Amino acid sequence: MATERINFNIQGMTCQACANRIEKVLNKKDFVENCTVNFAGETAQIEFDDTQTNIDELIKIIEKTGYQATVQTSWQPESNSETHWRVWALLGLSLPFWIGMLGMMFGSHILMLPILLQILIATVVQTYFALPFYKGAIASIRGGLANMDVLVSVGTLAIYLYSLGMVLMRYDTHHVYFEASVMVLAFVSLGKYLEAKTKRGSLNALGSLLQLTPREVTVFKNNAWKTLSLDKIQLGDILRCVQGGRIAADGEVVSGEGWADEGHLTGESQSVYKTVGDKVLAGSILSGSLDYRAEQLGKDTLLGDMTAALADAQGSKAPIARLADKVAAVFVPTVLSISVLTLIINWLIASDFTTAIVRAVAVLVVACPCAVGLATPAAIMAGMGQAVRHGVWFKNAAALEMAGSINTVVLDKTGTLTQGKPDIVDIWLTKNTTEKQLLAIASAVEQHAAHPLANAIVQAALSRDIQPLRADNVNTIAGEGISANIDGVGEVKVGKLDFCGFKLPEHLSGIWQIATIAAVSINNQAVGAFALADPLKPDSITAINRLRENHIDVHIMSGDNPATVAHIAQQLGLPDGQAHGNQSPRDKAQFIQQLQQQGTKVAMVGDGINDAPALALADVGFAVRGSTDIAEQSADAVLVKQSVNQLTEGLLIARATLRVIKQNLFFAFIYNILGIPFAAIGLLTPILAGAMMAMSSISVLSNALRLKRMKF
C-alpha cells in the first residue's frame, strides 16, 4: 500500500460535531488509513492509499457531507467579503429592535417598531440571512449527526413561527418575539465571524511563516541584476538582499555582510552576523547588504521544513481532545431533549405556552458546543505556534500534550550539552607508532562515522596534511566504536578502550582522567589513543538551572567514561547520582524504562544513533536538528537551534498549553452546565442566551491567545 498524506482546508464547519462527522465518514472508507479534522484550524489531515483513490475523490466525499474542501497550498484563505457583508447587514436589521428595547427599559413604547415592520424584518432575516444555518442543519441531519446549526435553526425558527402564529391567529401583538429571532441570529453570526477572524488571524502561526519569504527577488542573470518572482529562481543563482529585505532561499554568502534576524526560524533572540562563507536562511530579515548563492529553495529550506512540520502537527489531534469529541457526539441531541422537556414542564407548571416556548428556545440558543470543540485545538494551535517561534518543532499534538507533563529530562552529553566540536588535547602513542601513522589509520576508519569525535580526528589529520587511507569492511557498533580493514595494516578499531581491547598506562593522569578517550588498535593490539575535550555550550548551565527551578529532574546519560561525565555534571551543578557514564544504547533505554516504572514522565534529548532507542522509548523524545536521520525519525520533537535552552522553553510552553486546555475545558463545561439550567428556569432570555453563546467561543479563543503573549 502506498500511503500519501494530504492537508485540506475545510469550510462550513460550525462546531466540533461537524469535524467529528467528516472524520467518521472518511475513516469508514477502506482506502483511508486515518483522518483527523481540526475544527479550530478548519483543516483536515488525511492519510490514504493513493493506489485506490485520489485527491479529487476525497474532496467529493467531504463535499457530500456538506462542507467545502481544498488542498492546503496556503494556510490562510482569502477573507470572505460576502460573510462580512451579511454579518453587518444583519446587525443593521437588528438595530431597530435594540432601540425599541432600550425605550421599553425607560417605560416608553414610542420607539417600538410597528408589528408589520417587525414581521417584515424577521421574515427577511429568516428567509435569507438564516439560510446558511438552515443549510448546515439539513446537511448535518442528513449525515446522521446534529451540530450547532440545528440548535440555532430550531430555536430561531420556532420563536419566529410562534410569534407569526400569534399575530395571524389571535392578532396578539403583546406576546410576540420577532426581535429574539432576529437578534439571536445577529449575535451568533457576529460571534462566528469574530471567531473565524481570530482563528485565521491571531492563532495562525502558519500564515506568519508563509509570509516570511519575499514574492520577488533580485537575481544576477545574463550579466545583469533582474527582479524575478521567487518561483523563477533556480539552485545556484546569485541573489541579492539589501537593508530591511528578507532572504529568499537557504544559501551561502558570496559577497557583502550584514546582520540576519533568524528569530522566527531558530528562536535566536539576537541577530547573527553574516559575511562571505556564512550560511543564510530563507525568511530571515537582513540589516546590511549581501549577495548569496541559492542552495535550497521552497520546501527544501529550513523554513519549508518548519512550515510542513507545523502544518502536520496542527492537523493532528491531542489525546485530551477525545473528551471533546465524545461530548460533541451527544451534545446536540441532549440539548434538544432538554429543550423539549423544558417546554413540557414549563407549560404544565405555568400553564403558559408563551413562557414555555421562550424558555425552550433560550435553552437551545444558550447551549454552545463550539466552546467545547474549540477548547483543545485552539490552545494546541497557539502552543504549536509559540513553540515554533522558540525553535521547537513538535511533530504532533500528542507530543505537545505529553511534554506538558514531563518532570524528568535525560540528556545525552556530546552535541547536546557540549558544543559537539571536540578538540584533541593529547595523544598517547606506543613505542612503534608515530603521531602521523596514528592519525592516518584512525582517520581512515573515522571518516566513515558520523560522531563529532570522529570528525575531530579526521579534521586533525587533514590539518596536518595527512590523507586518510582506504578502509573496507566498515562496521559500526553503536555505543562502542567502529572497525575496518586497511590493506597492509590489518583490522583497525577506533572507539572505547574495552572495544579496542586494552587499558591506558597508569602513569597517564590529569587531562586523561576527565577527557573523552578514543582508543586505536590494530588486530586487537594497542597502537595509541586520543584525549579529546568538548566544552559546554554557553547556555547549558543556564538551561539546566531553569529546568531544576521548574521542578524538572535532570540526568546525563553518556557512552563516555564516568569521570568525564561526572566532570560535566559538576560544571552544571548536578549531583554525582545524576551523571551516568559508560552507557550503551540499551543501558539508556533501560534507564528510561526504570524511571517510567516509578511513575515518572521522561523526556530524552539526543542527537546520534546511540540515542535512537532511548528517544523512541521516552514519553517525549527531542532530537537536535542536524542529528542522524534515525535520531530525528525516532524523536517526537526537534530542537532547531541545537540548544538545551530551547528544550526548557519547549517544556514550559507545553506546560502552559496544557494548563490553558484544562482552563478552556473547565470554562466550556461550566458555561453549559450553568447556562442551560438558567435558561430552562427563565433567568436567561433568548437574546441574552444568544449573546452568551457568542461570547463563550470568543472567551475560549481569547484564553488560548494568551499563550502568544506569554514569556518563556
Automatic annotation (TrEMBL):
One of its GO terms (molecular function) is ATP hydrolysis activity. Residues 4-70 form the HMA domain. SUPFAM superfamilies: Calcium ATPase, transduction domain A, Calcium ATPase, transmembrane domain M, HAD-like, HMA, heavy metal-associated domain. GO terms for cellular component: endomembrane system; plasma membrane. It is found in: Cell membrane; Endomembrane system. Pfam families: E1-E2_ATPase, HMA, Hydrolase. It is a multi-pass membrane protein. CDD domains: HMA (cd00371), P-type_ATPase_Cu-like (cd02094). GO terms for biological process: copper ion homeostasis. Gene3D superfamilies: 3.30.70.100, Calcium-transporting ATPase, cytoplasmic domain N, Calcium-transporting ATPase, cytoplasmic transduction domain A, HAD superfamily/HAD-like. The chain crosses the membrane at residues 87-106, 112-134, 146-169, 175-194, 327-350, 356-380, 665-681. Keywords: ATP-binding, Cell membrane, Membrane, Metal-binding, Nucleotide-binding, Translocase, Transmembrane, Transmembrane helix. It comes from the Bacteria. The keyword Transit peptide does not apply. Belongs to the cation transport ATPase (P-type) (TC 3.A.3) family. Type IB subfamily. This is Heavy metal translocating P-type ATPase. It comes from Simonsiella muelleri ATCC 29453.
